[in-house]
From TrEMBL:
It comes from Thraustotheca clavata. It comes from the Eukaryota. This is N-acetyltransferase domain-containing protein. InterPro entries: Acyl_CoA_acyltransferase, GNAT_dom. Gene3D superfamilies: 3.40.630.30.
Amino acid sequence: MEQQDDDKHGLKEWKRRLNECNGCIFYVVDANDQIVGFVFVHDHATMVKTTHIWIAGTLPSARRKGVMKSLFEHCHSVYANQDRITVNTFPTRFPNMPFFLASMNYKLTSMQADKHLYHKQL
């Protein structure tokens, strides 16, 4: 079965952001060496000294165990020389994300329909 490449989030876009946007993927593994959570970050397209968290996720079995918090804290440490970190979320699809971001001191910057942009000053 041939898989269609999603223009916004498919493999081609992942490769582009890794190569052209100074992208990096951080991940956490469990005791069995299986990836249970990750964040994909890259330079923000229009804001200088800004890192953008493009995609993040955890396995359902790893949720509420500090995996995402650990990943975000790692990003804050790695990119401490930047002015800010941004992340977009879609609260109707990911209803816990605004609460998580607030707990990590992210501020709501703007809303565009269902898409909400948050930032954290570093």
